Each structure stands twice: as C-alpha cells, then as structure tokens.
Amino acid sequence: xxxxxxxxxxxxxxxxxxxxxxxxxxxxxxxxxxxxxxxxxxxxxxxxxxxxxxxxxxxxxxxxxxxxxxxxxxxxxxxxxxxxxxxxxxxxxxxxxxxxxxxxxxxxxxxxxxxxxxxxxxxxxxxxxxxxxxxxxxxxxxxxxxxxxxxxxxxxxxxxxxxxxxxxxxxxxxxxxxxxxxxxxxxxxxxxxxxxxxxxxxxxxxxxxxxxxxxxxxxxxxxxxxxxxxxxxxxxxxxxxxxxxxxxxxxxxxxxxxxxxxxxxxxxxxxxxxxxxxxxxxxxxxxxxxxxxxxxxxxxxxxxxxxxxxxxxxxxxxxxxxxxxxxxxxxxxxxxxxxxxxxxxxxxxxxxxxxxxxxxxxxxxxxxxxxxxxxxxxxxxxxxxxxxxxxxxxxxxxxxxxxxxxxxxxxxxxxxxxxxxxxxxxxxxxxxxxxxxxxxxxxxxxxxxxxxxxxxxxxxxxxxxxxxxxxxxxxxxxx
Length: 479
Ligand SMILES: Nc1ncnc2c1ncn2[C@@H]1O[C@H](COP(=O)(O)OP(=O)(O)OP(=O)(O)O)[C@@H](O)[C@H]1O
Ligand SMILES: [Mg+2]
Prior knowledge:
Elements: H1 4-8, H2 13-61, H3 66-78, E1 82-87, E2 92-94, H4 107-114, E3 119-123, E4 135-143, E5 150-159, H5 161-211, H6 226-281, H7 287-318, E6 326-330, H8 331-341, H9 343-349, E7 352-355, E8 362-366, H10 367-383, E9 389-396, E10 400-407, H11 414-419, H12 442-452, E11 456-462, E12 466-474
Parallel strand pairs: 7-9
Antiparallel strand pairs: 1-2, 1-5, 3-4, 4-5, 6-8, 9-10, 10-12, 11-12
Helix pairs in contact: 2-5, 5-6, 6-7, 7-12, 10-12
Bound molecules: adenosine-5'-triphosphate and magnesium ion.
Adenosine-5'-triphosphate is lined by residues 376, 380-381, 384, 407, 409-412, 420, 425-428, 436-444, 467.
C-alpha cells in the first residue's frame, strides 16, 4: 500500500528529478567543503606545533644562560613566537617580568612533563601574557645536564590567526567553486530531468491511447535503462492486449455464426419432420408411403441427435472438459477395428482402403479419441473420393508417431483449405446430406482432439488429385 501522504503528493516528476539531483550535488559539495576546511586547519596547526617544538628543542639544548636566551628571544620575537622558561615549580625564570607569572598548567600536565613528555595545546582565548587571541602553545621539559633531573620547562606560543586567515581564504575559494558547480548542476539537472520527464510523458501518452482502445502502438526504445525496459514491457503488454482483443472479437463472431449455422443445420431436418407429420395429421400420405415417411423422420431425428451430440462434444473438448487417458496404443489394432466397423461403407463406396505396414507403430494417445480422429478422417476420405484409393500409413520418428491418411479424391482449393477446420464449413454446400450425414463438424472436432493430445495436424490438397492429412503425435514423456 502506498502511504496516504505519498498519494497526496503533488510534486511533478520533473521537480522530483530536478530536486533529487540538486540535493545530491549540494550535499556532496557541503561535505567536501567542511572536510577540506577541517583537514586544512588541522594540518596547519600541526605544522605550527612542530615548528614550535623544534624551536623549543633548540632552546633546551642550549645552556639557558640569559645572554643566549636574549638572542633566541630576539630571533623568535621576530617570528611572532613568545618564549618563556619556567623552573620545576612552574615559576617563570625567563624573561624577567615585573610580576611573577606562573605557567597556566594543571598538576597532571606537570607530571607529564616530569616524565619527559611534551604537551601541545591550542587555546582560543588568550596567550600566556593574557592577550585575547587564538594561540598554539607547546610545553617542553628540560633536565639538569649532570644528573638528568627534571629542572623545569620551556613554553613557546604563537598566534594562529594566519591559519584562520588561510582557512577563510580556502572557504572563500571553495564557496566560489561551490557556486559555480551549483549553477552547472542546476543546468545539468534541468537537462536530465527534462530528458527523463520527456521519456516518461511519451509512455504516459501511449498508455492513454491504449486506454482509449488503440492497440497498434509500439514505442521505439534502446535496451539502456529501466525506462527502456519499461517501454519494452509496455510494447509487449500492448501486443498481448491486441491479441486478446482480437481473440474476443473472433470468439464473438464465432458465437454469432455458430448460432446462425446451428439454426440453419437444424432447420432442414426439422422442416422435413414437420412436413411429414403434417401429412400424417391430415392423412394425405398414402398408406404405402407411411412406413417410408416414418423411417425418413427417424433418420432426420437421428441427424438432429448427432448434430446436438457433436456440438456438445466439440464444446466439451474446447473448454477442456474431457480428460484423456493416454496409453501406448498399437496403431494396427485400432485401424483393424475401424476397417471392421466401416466394412459396409467401404464396400458400398467403390473405394479401396489400403493399410500399409503398421506392425511396429505405437501411438501415445487416448484410445477412443484417437479412434474418433481416425474415423472422421477416413470417413471424409471415403466421402470425397469416387472409385479411388484411401491410404493409411505411419512411422515412428524421433519426435513421435506420424500418421498419414491420403486419398485420391476430389481435393479442395487453397482457399477452401484455410476454412475446413471451421465448424459447419463444407467446401461444397451442394454435397451436404450425403449418406455420411455431413454437418461440417468432423474436422473441427478432429482439430480440437489433436490439439488436446499435444499433437499437430497438417493438410495438403490438390483439386482433382486428392487430399493428404498428416498428424504427428508426440512420444510418451519420460518422467
Ligand atoms: N478428404 C477430403 N477430400 C476433400 N474434401 C475434404 C476432405 N476432408 C474434408 N473435406 C472438406 O472439408 C469439409 C469439412 O469437413 P468436415 O469433416 O469438417 O465436415 P463434413 O465431413 O462435411 O461433415 P461431418 O464430418 O460433420 O459429417 C468437407 O465438407 C469437405 O468439403
Ligand atoms: Mg467429415
């Protein structure tokens, strides 16, 4: 869930991008300035301390007699360095001052000095003489020459105003650099934000068009970043939407034509039955014809039942309501059974059924449904062939089992070939109502069943020469 606060946020994407980019630059620059100034100041202070310690060391290495100290004092004063010598009690012994100045130092620090340690500190209030300015102080102990006993310490101090001055200069320079980079950053972030927002807006407009039903939009993109990937997925989504919309339209049309076709198919037998019943009602059918009429009515009724059953079968297969029980079936067994069942039809049809060697062929399929497929194809071949041949052959391949049923019949044209799988399609409408009871459902059912088996069916046909149906049933999957 998106927090309420965020959903209410009205900051346009452009400014989000812009501010984000700018914030990064400003934070980066501020951190850089602070760390540079801090580091610079620390380095300068260390240098001052080191300088003072080296002076202090040269002082304690001397004999500390007043004449020499005066000379040192003069030299150091010229460099703005104050210089004091204290005895072991912390009382000043050089220079001679009117008042007895004591070192501003705590007992702990005295102890440190006694043990030979050196001390440095920075006070920002006053120097040793009480002048209010920032100062660096160093304390260095000195020892008796003969017995190396602690004898006192020297203190050197120097104002660090020059360091502060340097830091101010550095800050000034950095601030200028900061200003220039902020201006450049603003310009850059404007360009970037504008570029990104333009890309997002392009997608937004396209999405808007899709929402209004335009499913042909495809946006150009390079596989560079997330927006490109989003564009690619958007294109895919539009394509999928288009496909499903086409499918919906197709289904609607199919539904419409199904109703029309079903009504049309049923009207003929119903009209025949109705006509005969009327004749019987008004006793206009001669006694000798009555039995024939009843037989005709029964035939038409059977046709209606078959139509309804096949339609239901088709719908059940289509909506996956049937379950296949697949086994490895010896094809010769099933073909023998069909030949036996169709013996009469074959005999009457003047055609010859040639079954090629099927001995080692097995098909991984549902027995009844495979039989239904083969019966439909063989019946069609019989139906559309006059004094010709119907060939059944098969072979096992690497992919599975290939079954071929070909005839030397009337064949169909290329345009007819595109439609033969449609429900109620009959290439030649005048040939309806043959003794096989055509309704144009056979191949539609075959196609659904083949698909359900995960198999494929293809057809080749030539007018006047014949038709060949080829199926490829996949092998039993290895577990
Ligand atoms: N072997 C074939 N030779 C020539 N035309 C064929 C062949 N098989 C099918 N057709 C054409 O395809 C049409 C559709 O076939 P399909 O089996 O679906 O319907 P049908 O045979 O007309 O009716 P049904 O099978 O429902 O009794 C046929 O009407 C016919 O025009
Ligand atoms: Mg048929």
